[in-house]
User: Fold this.
Amino acid sequence: MGKITFLPSGKSIKARPGQTLVSAAAAARVVIPQRCGGHASCLMCRVVLEKGELSAPSALERRKMPENDLLEGIRLGCQAKATDKDCTVRIPESRWKSVVQAALERQRNGED
Ligand code: FES
Assistant:
C-alpha cells in the first residue's frame, strides 16, 4: 500500500494499488471536483502529480488528456490509480475561488 498525500490540505491516506485517486481522496475526506461520475468526460477531476508514482495513463485517459498535460504530470483523478509507491498530488484550486480571493484581497488593501 502506498501513501497518497493530497495538497493543499496535506491530508494523506494509505491506498490499495489500483484504487483511483477520487476514491482514495473520498476516503481521506478530501474533495476532488467531479461531475461525470468517473467516466472521464467532465475533466473536472484533474490533479497534478507532484511527487512519486501513479499508474500509467490508461488508453481512455490518453484519449481525453492532451499529451503535454500528461507529460507535466496532470492526471484525471477518476482514472489515475494508486500503486504500491507513495505519491503526492495537488488538487488545483477552482478558478472561481481564486477570483473571489483576489477580489477580497483587493478590497482588504483598499484598492476597490
Ligand atoms: S470525474 Fe469526470 S473526468 Fe474524472
Remarks:
- The chain is about 30% helix and 20% strand.
- The two ends are 50 Å apart (CA to CA).
- The pocket of FE2/S2 (inorganic) cluster is lined by residues 34-36, 38, 40-45, 76-78 (CB under 6 Å).
